[in-house]
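Researcher: Here's my situation. A collaborator sent me these components and asked whether they could plausibly form a single complex. I don't have experimental data yet, so a predicted model of the whole assembly would be a useful starting point for our discussion.
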Amino acid sequence: AQSVTQLGSHVSVSEGALVLLRCNYSSSVPPYLFWYVQYPNQGLQLLLKYTTGATLVKGINGFEAEFKKSETSFHLTKPSAHMSDAAEYFCAVTDYYGNNRLAFGKGNQVVVIP
Amino acid sequence: DVKVTQSSRYLVKRTGEKVFLECVQDMDHENMFWYRQDPGLGLRLIYFSYDVKMKEKGDIPEGYSVSREKKERFSLILESASTNQTSMYLCASSASGRVGGELFFGEGSRLTVL
């Protein structure tokens, strides 16, 4: 079964600084990887995803992530944090054979400090 | 826009009550999911359905059941609510046949069991 590890439940970043959220996955088959964001009192929305092809994936709101098979990682970055980036971020993995059944990490609560 | 609608944003129930959480999607998606979200635990899959009248257990099905009589509607049922079922419940849907396809989430139903 697939699984995802996200370390550091709370992440504080200064406005304008780099945002880096780490995600490591475990999968016995080629994975599909996702980052979702959840703003307060809302559901989750897709930031970006990796299925096949280019390993550097660009998403919405200036976020990007790189799939590194050798490191089993899919870290999320944004060069310059904005106050509006304060939210909870979830990494998720699924396998080729699933009905889009995702396994989620425990999430990172991002706080942006002015 | 894809819309997943959860009937109640906030519910307060008493121990032992039967609770129905309703979810409706308007995109003709085959797959529907119920997740439970708790702080520090991320999202955990309760049940999912890939077709009308079909259901499969997720990671934490105990104490829950589901119903899918129509393609657009997926209901989560707590037969006898308990305090440890106080949580945020998220419904999601996705199209079948699109491996790596996106999950679309509702805004969540926050259930408090007293």
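Model: Some features of this prediction you could bring to your collaborator: The interface with chain A takes residues 4, 30-31, 33, 35, 40-45, 48, 50, 58, 90, 92, 94, 96, 98-103, 105-108 of chain B (CB under 8 Å). The CA atoms of residues 11 and 111 of chain B lie 5 Å apart.
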